[in-house]
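Re: the 122-residue chain
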Amino acid sequence: MPRYKTHITAGAISGLIVLLILGKIHNITISPLLSMIAILFSVMGSTLPDKIEPAKNSKHRKFFHSKVILFTTSYLLYEIFNTGNVAYFNENILTLYTGFILAGYLSHLILDATTPSGLPLF
């Protein structure tokens, strides 16, 4: 089972990857401050599944650690990549932050899916 530090590291990396992708697709200028925001929000997202369903044992994975949430999170992140909303960065900051949170959440689920117990369907 991936440890807390592993989830945080993967979350930070996923946030930076999303920032680079969004920067390229929507022509967002990447600054050190925006990079720190990406890391902060994606790390928050990467710890969220275990805050909702604490890892008290190996069978703690329920709905918020499920394949349904994995696919839903993936789809929402895909939509954020394809929408023009984040191109207007100042007007749609919430969309950008949501993308970072989703990236962290998704990294958590992907790491958990690689374990022997995997993810339940629901």
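The chain has a mean pLDDT of 85.
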